[in-house]
């Protein structure tokens, strides 16, 4: 079984853009993996000879109790359960938000392998602008730019090292 990487994070941080960077084929693969649920986006990617599966999720709102937010939280929790590594995406430009804190708390409680990624970090002075994300208590903050394709190879390497 290929390792499964789940992308989680609040809406609009760039998860789907990152998913597209990390994968070549999409969705088609679902049928090949019994046990993975069908209501999310799956794709496969390959770096060197290492193949992996990526799950994109719609969003995350752990404390919301109704409607679309509940559904997004449910999907994300399921993706996290299926994942070998969770990539938690935050927005380097928007900065830290309350929702980021909620998600971090949820992930810390699970005790799952987790990689904190600050997207939209193109052209930023990493050390300075990214320091606030250490507050989340998830260790290193890894800057990438999904839109510009920066830091993607390194991210995959780090994720696969965590297996
Ligand atoms: P999602 O809701 O987390 O899936 O986020 P999307 O992938 O839909 O992206 C949300 C917005 O952020 C879109 O307008 C993207 O073009 C933009 N975006 C994604 N990645 C980057 C990036 O690396 N840099 C910048 N500046 N914008 C990005
Ligand atoms: Mg999306």
TrEMBL record:
TM segment ranges: none
Limits of the EngA-type G domain: 3-163
Lineage: superkingdom: Bacteria
Family: Belongs to the TRAFAC class TrmE-Era-EngA-EngB-Septin-like GTPase superfamily. EngA (Der) GTPase family.
General function of this protein: GTPase that plays an essential role in the late steps of ribosome biogenesis.
Complexes and interactors: Associates with the 50S ribosomal subunit.
Name the UniProt record assigns to this protein: GTPase Der
Organism this protein belongs to: Giesbergeria anulus
Gene name in the database record: der
Residues of the full protein shown: 1 to 163 of 446
